[in-house]
Please model this.
Amino acid sequence: MPRLSQQRGEQRTRTAMSPSAAIGHLDADCFYVSAERVRDRFLRGKAVGVLGNQGACVIAKSYEMKAAGVKTGMPIWDALRLCPQGVYVKRDFRWYEVLSRRMLAVIRTFSPAVEYYSIDEFFFEARSGVGASLQELAEQLRDAMLREVGVPVTVGIARTKTLAKLVSDTAKPFGALALLDSDAERTLLDRLPVTEVSGIAERRAARLEPYGILTALDLALADRRLVRRLLTVAGEALWYELNGDPVLPLHADRPPHRMLSRGGSLGEAAADSDRVFAWLVRNLERLVEELEFHVVRAGALSVYVLHKNGTQGFRRVELASPSDRFDLLLEAARFCCQRAWVPGLAATRMHVIASQLRRPGFVQLGLFDPPEAQARAVAELKRKVNAEIGRFALRSGATLPLYDVYRDGAQGYDICDVRGKICF
Amino acid sequence: MFAGAALALSELPMELMDRHDLGRRIRDRGGEREVQFLLSEAERVLPVWCNGQLQIFRWGNRRGESPYLPCTAWTQLGTIESGGWGERTIEPVVIPATMGLDKGVWYRIRQGIRGLVVQDERGRPRVYVICEPSSHYYQIMTRGSRWMPQLIDERI
Model:
């Protein structure tokens, strides 16, 4: 971020940006619910809650359910008290990805550079056409998305990514707003708590509070050096962005991963060693899929385990040479898991993490690794069978204790399996 | 345990509504009217596709009603497969539903539920909901229901 290193004076005078180009942010309105409504008209107009894979929590809710007081992340039994007539559906990330990619295609017809930020959020270079303003562009994009994909969205256009996101957040639902005037920006920032700024969560807000920085405008007007001291260079970037100076780049292509991880909740807590090992193998097989897709090898492997009693375990090992081979990585993963998991304690979450990623061409092979040919042949066979028959059709026998998980089709695809996004 | 179903009002012919006095079961949900068939009703009934017709049958058998039939509203898939219904003539049917109810949770049903129709000693048809062991998801969602209805071409 070279611009951040430049020493600047105090609060800069804001300059109006060219009204023909800016940054846009498109955010689907209650995306998972909207996606369910695309394929199921019955759900339209009703209070709908999408439940996570375990069925315990509301991970998305319609505006009707929100009006009843239900919040994202709320356990279903609390939601039931607030909204007894709500209808609950199970999440389906395969379907959500289909719509997400359709949305991406529509935005690309409006913009030469689009960042696939998350499954339901996109940043884009906003350029107004001949005879059309950025406000009209925002409205046209919003309407096209509803017409062509069936998903209601809100579009915000502003001078920077951070401002564009704030604009779309405040224009919801089904809004379209191009806000390029600095006075209008100031009015908006003045009524937003600082935690509304993407990147300022409670911990950072607590650091700002003693200095009287409570709103987004307070942050924009604060001394830049103070902000940098309190929130490091990341906070300083936000300061520039809030002041209309675009320093956060638009990533039309996803930058290479620095690490890859697979895992998450185990659903039913697992205390049985065979079941814990089965989860380890499942997560590792998913991780190997990712390594192969991105054509990288792991130089180090880590396993994280969260126990039901709240204790955590973590172990990391460096591999003799970077690898994407299941057999070699399994040895490392088993070693880590034996140290991260406390036998007898029920585990509730697990992550298997590959780091020190290297391209195959730069890999120094290990002297003592078993021969590659057989392992590569097995991996290739596995890849072909699963591509032909379906994911996990051919998998390690160690995953047999997870019969219930593999039987549930929805468990076969997760949000992290949606590739190309910048953000989780 | 499965405690009821709802069907969009538009799915039910008026003649059937009138004949079975279903009007009092109509509820509004999000501006759309539906008919609710609840286990807690004094008169328990369910809609059933039988012989190509949508009909309304009594749901299960209560204590003091038919001595010929088991006193329950559900039957397990395993019971049917192991011949638990004995010599009785049973007929698999479809119970159309847009939503199911269990422990207060209304959940979406895309097509319907599998059911079983059997006649009592006076030849009156009764429908039982076919159940199977709950998925982990269903158990969590309903806070412990061990049995879930067998849904058509769908498993949640």
About this structure: Chain B has a mean pLDDT of 94.
